[in-house]
Amino acid sequence: MAKHVFNAGPCLLPKVAVDNAIDALRDFKGTGVSLISTSHRSKAWVEVMDECRALWKELLDIPDTHEVLFLGSGASLEFLLVPMNYLEKKAGYLDTGVWAHKALKEAQGLGDAFAVASSADRNYSYIPKGYEIPADLDYFHITTNNTIYGTELREDIDCPVPLIADMSSDILSRRVDVSKYALIYGGAQKNAGPAGVAFAIVRKDSLGKVSRHIPTMLDYRVHIDKESMFNTPPVFSIFVMNETLKWLKSVGGVDAIHEADVRKAETLYAEIDRNDLFVGTAAVADRSIMNVCFVMAPGYEHLQDEFLNFATSRDIVGIKGHRSVGGFRASIYNACTQEDVEALVKCMRDFESRVCR
After folding, report:
1. What's the DSSP call for residue 177?
2. Which of 80, 90, 202, 213 is the most exposed place for a label (fewest CB within 10 A)?
3. What is the pLDDT of residues 98-143, one digit of tens each?
4. Of the candidates 159, 155, 151, which has an alpha carbon nearest to the alpha carbon of residue 131?
5. Does residue 92 fall inside a structural domain?
6. Residue 188 shares a structural domain with residue 267
7. Could you check whether the bond before residue 10 is cis, i.e. omega within 30 degrees of 0?
8. pLDDT tens digits for range 1-49
9. Residue 71's domain is classified under what CATH number?
10. Are 87 and 225 contained in the same domain?
11. Whether 225 contacts 296, CB under 8 Å
């Protein structure tokens, strides 16, 4: 029986992308050579890089002012690249969770960086509001979706300084006004592909404004100049990313997938709110449509492991909450289907009937 996969990352990927990757491992584009043994300078591979870049630009309507990069890393390395390339005097961060806080910590190692606002006072269960962004910042950094706590900034903000966003876990789930950002970056393994590659959407004229020496591999300008092939790129990860983007285009693009994602989230949140055994942990106004976090309701905490075992018996995979917060987390990224969500909802209802009979 097929599993219903809710892993937070590496995420569930479209079956067609996985199948095509398996085929390419055996024979890449009819060359008789495996994808992972193919030269990254070959015509066949350069075509994949070009197609992947073009799909990013098409799906997110990325203007010519920005370039798309594929980097052999994850978002955690980008935490360092951001201040390395942008921090000259002072930077502000919106502290909305573990990953946002880690990004801030990396910047503090290079200069004056601080939290403009934070939701740490309530265990990151909400998105701060009503804060002022100082006009003298080199940049303001946000993490749009917080996987561990299930909160999300679901609209582009207006910002008086260069805006930088970690969109690792909600990229390609909604339309984004890329022109508002100096940089959008993230690890692919939440919604855009497998682990091993990070994406960066860089406004070209936002670079070259710091006085420090930037090590070659950490300089976004180098990767723009070399079209993401300064060194050997992670060919397998980029290939699967490209197949994932092709799938996304085939199902109607970002607008269509956003509608599907919202419907999945509404279905699951409705059950959490209805079912007396469970309670959501994120502020209702800030609930993520990518990562749905919930716990056993007061009085039923002792049933947590029993529910996890029950879910496992129903072929539900990956709903255990992050080790730092416990509870449950259903990551309903783009490739997760409405049927997967409905299977989880039925599991919750059946468990309720079993406990409360």
Report:
1. -
2. 213
3. 999 999 999 999 999 999 999 999 999 999 999 999 999 999 999 9
4. 159
5. yes
6. no
7. yes
8. 689 999 998 999 999 999 999 999 999 999 999 999 999 999 999 999 9
9. 3.40.640.10
10. yes
11. no
Residue 6 included in any domain: no
Active site residues: 99, 166, 190
Q: Is 237 left (phi over 0), alpha (psi -120 to 50) or beta?
A: alpha
Cβ(110)–Cβ(92) under 8 Å? no
pLDDT tens readout for residues 265-299: 999 999 999 999 999 999 999 999 999 999 999 99
Give me the CATH number covering residue 301.
3.90.1150.10
Same domain, 309 and 246: no
> How many separate domains does the chain show?
2
Residue 328 lies in a domain: yes
| Nearest C-alpha neighbor of 236 from the set 48, 7, 3 | 48
- Residue 132 token pair: 């002022």
β-pairing, 163-166 vs 139-143, is parallel
Kindly state whether residues 205 and 278 are assigned to the same domain. Answer: no
* Within a domain: 10: no
Q: Do residue 194 and residue 305 come from a single domain?
A: no
> Residue 303: which domain range?
252-356
| 17 within 8 A of 243, measured Cβ to Cβ | yes
C-alpha angle 157/159/165, rounded to 5°? 65
CA dist 315 and 346 (Å) reads: 12
Q: Which amino acid is at 86?
A: Y
The CA-CA-CA angle for residues 327, 331, 333, to 5°, reads 170
